[in-house]
Amino acid sequence: MTKLQRSPALGFKLCGLGEVLWDILPGGRQMGGAPANFACHAKALGAEARVISRVGDDALGREIVQRLEILGVPGDCVEVDAIAPTGTVTVELAPDGQPRYTIHENVAWDRLRGETAGRLAASTADAICFGSLAQRNEPARSTIQAMVALAPSAAWRVFDINLRQHYYSREVIVKSLELANALKVNDAELPVLAEMFGLSGDAPGKIAALAARFDLRLVAYTRGERGSLLFAEGRWSDHPGLKTSVVDTVGAGDSFTAAMTLGLLAGWDLDKINDQANRVAAYVCSRAGATPALPAELRELFSPATQPSA
């Protein structure tokens, strides 16, 4: 096993860059947005985390900042827009717990500007996670691409593709993959990429082709209840998944990405990363909302006391 460089709890700096919003769920309102979920889970697992986003100058925006700070994520990188409202998404759950989204347009995170605090966070991050949704419009698209480029050369730049409805384009995906050194894609998204880039064969073949084409250090392929496949520099890790009683799957992929990124930063081998990330994601599926409080036994997986010394 690769020795640890640092423990996550010793202060890795992670940023979620893009949308922060309210998911309007059947059971009530929950803070959401994949980059925000990523940051909140990273914080829960011991990292220093920031959300780089934009909210409206309204009650919903102020509540988001308060919610982040309750979760231990400072709100200093959340910009405030004087005109556009805080983002909302209406979420309906299918019988299997899978979410169906109605994403409202012309909202604050579409107008992300890249203010000083956010630029500083991006330029000092150990890892930055971004997706395609928040790049649907300008100026957010250019801002996100510029801020990813600010990350240190040694940082993990994770493109959690997160395809939503029609809010993506080949141009945005190509540029994002060129900026990234890691890709997280699920079993519904991989066929879209395969068609977009003319990839054939089975899932591992498509994954390896994407890694080679865009010089990616890692590709994470998630398959819901069937677990996940990780590919990094010629090595593979295949996890079958963990049985859990699914309440909803909102935020589960984001928790997987946060746990995976911390494992990468800590220098764990792929099998350990895959197992720990699946454990975290399975728990999130068993609870309502995107960022349920994680139990001590999961947080301790990332604690210095449970890791071998370097």
Descriptive account of the structure:
By secondary structure, the protein is α/β, with parallel strands linked by helices. It has one domain (9-292): Ribokinase (UDP-N-acetylmuramoyl-L-alanine:D-glutamate ligase), CATH 3.40.1190.20. It is built from ten helices and 13 strands. It has helices at 34-44, 59-70, 116-123, 140-150, 170-179, 190-197, 203-214, 252-266, 270-285, 296-299; strands spanning 13-17, 21-25, 28-32, 48-56, 78-81, 87-93, 99-103, 127-130, 156-160, 182-186, 218-222, 228-232, 235-239. It has a nine-stranded mixed sheet, sandwiched between helices. Strands 3-2-6-7 form a four-stranded mixed sheet. Strand 12 and strand 13 form a beta hairpin. The longest helix has 16 residues, at 270-285. The protein is globular, with a radius of gyration of 18 Å. The termini are close together. Mean pLDDT is 91; it is low at 1-9.
In the CATH hierarchy, the architecture is 3-Layer(aba) Sandwich
CATH class: Alpha Beta
What amount of the residues lies in strands? 15-25%
Low-confidence segments, ≥5 residues, pLDDT <50? Answer: 1-9
- What global shape is seen? globular
